[in-house]
Amino acid sequence: MRSSSALLFILVLGSHPGCAWITQNQAARADYARQVEVAALRAADLEDQMSAMQTKVTELQETVALHGQNETERLETLDEVNTEIVKLRGNIEELQFHVGELQKYLDQDAISRERRMLHAEKRLSSLEKYLHVPTPPPPTDQEMGLAPTDGSVAVVPGTDPAVTTPPGTDPVVPSVPEITPAKSADEAIDIAVSNMKDGRQGVARVVLQKALTDFPKSTEEPEILYRIGETYLNEQDWRSAAKAFDVVVKSFPKSGWASWAMLRQGEAFAGLGKIDAAHTFWESVIDVYPKSDAAVEAKKKLQ
Hints:
Elements: H1 2-14, H2 17-131, H3 185-197, H4 201-214, H5 221-234, H6 238-251, H7 256-271, H8 275-288, H9 293-302
Helix pairs in contact: 2-8, 3-4, 3-5, 4-5, 5-6, 5-7, 6-7, 7-8, 8-9
């Protein structure tokens, strides 16, 4: 009899409205914990910005102080500066004279070498006619060491072997993928995903951000926002990724991408070294979206 009474008491307690209140309270605490972690990231960014601004203010104060001191010393050193300028002008004129003399010498030497080469060619021509020897063909690139004999591309000293092209051909310029304007949000996502796979996260992000402007309030907006967070995650920009995924969770909590966004938020916090915070997000995926594929992945990460 006592056991029946106890069972009846448990059933009444389970159906009591206070039990639902406890469940809601737990969910609210989990949501609060997640928001605290995201707010901490934003606060850290603000602290960094404030520190940078304080550094700039200090540098400006030092610059103003030095300017006042330099202004006082400027008049004292003006005569010394003028004297040095006169000396420098004299040195420049002397160097210009020497350069002119060297140029004359080089011109004379070049003329002398040309004269000797022309004289040698005339002598060889006379000997070939006298001996009835045919004139040999000009030397090839291989004979001059400019082209290898094994069929590979010649490497000219001072160039990069990786970008050297065969003689007589134009250098190969790396091609940049041409991005055509997307005609729909779906097409924009496809273009972005393709660029992400090829490692062009920045290009993909630009395409996605443009899609938000070109196709406002489209049904694909949750995925577009999720993909933006994914580009940051691929670049290991953990802070930007966590904040981008938070937009999906807050703006589209009932979307199929929200569970994945919350899962990726955990990965971003793990990348920041905040393992406890990462577990908070993964546990929330299981609690808020228990039947989702993301919940299955979250359970694996918590093992």
